[in-house]
Amino acid sequence: MKVLLLVNSSASSVTGRAKVLIRRALSERHEVTLAETSRRGHATRLARGAAADGMDLVVVLGGDGTLNEAANGLVRTDCAMAALPGGSTNVFARTLGIPDDPVEATTVVLDAVDAGRIRRVGLGRVNGRYFLFHCGLGFDAAVVEQVEKRSGLKRYAGHPLFIWAGLTTWLRHYDRRRPHMRVLRPDGSDTGDLYLAIVQNTDPYTYLGSRPLSLAPEATFDRGLTCVGLRSMSLRPMLSVVWSLIRGDTGIRDHPMVSYDTDLSCLDVVGLGPFPYQVDGDLVGDTEKLAFNWDPECLDLVVPGPGI
Q: Structure pTM?
């Protein structure tokens, strides 16, 4: 196989030693070319160029943002993508059943490729940009914004930084006095006013340490999108929802303050004023309207783990 090893050396857990070991392991079985990203959006261009040059596989060593960019360059091509964990949380790689150590993960990915475990999977799309696992609107994106302002700490603080950002955002950096958006379903109905929403293509939503936080178990590569919204940001309902997530309680969908819709082929989000949004953990900015679609079977993906 002709393989491009695409590396974001600025990602939280990427080291020079890991790059050398991973390239050596890939080269034992395949013809490997190395490329490194140097700026935002660069991974999309490198991945698209790899597909145009006849590469069979792009192996991405980086965080979820780098994986998202690479996927956007490979959608609807014949070049497959494989994920190696290089970020602070590595939601997507862990969702695929890939170990959190990038060198160990390389062996798992190589074995999966040899076994032919490459699937054509469906992705979500928001305003033309594809996403692998989720898009967060409102409060969720505001938390990401606080984390990105302290991106230098991600390599060292990791999950505690996200917890701190969640608390400070709730206390100081997000307007909890008014709703921010409304979701319009394909049948013309709407959710009513929401304070935040998360649109998922896969589950879990994220990880807290080694614990997956499952928000929408119905979200898989083979089904439409799942949209979860919150109708209040008062302390009691917020704590109730967070506690349900930590416990792994799937009854969150029946919570009176939760809006829960599954198998959506499309949806629109209309803001009650500007609101921030993020895509696969990458802050995009503020908007007042988003259009979502689910595109089935649009990316060839190495999937080592079962049941995804």
A: 0.93
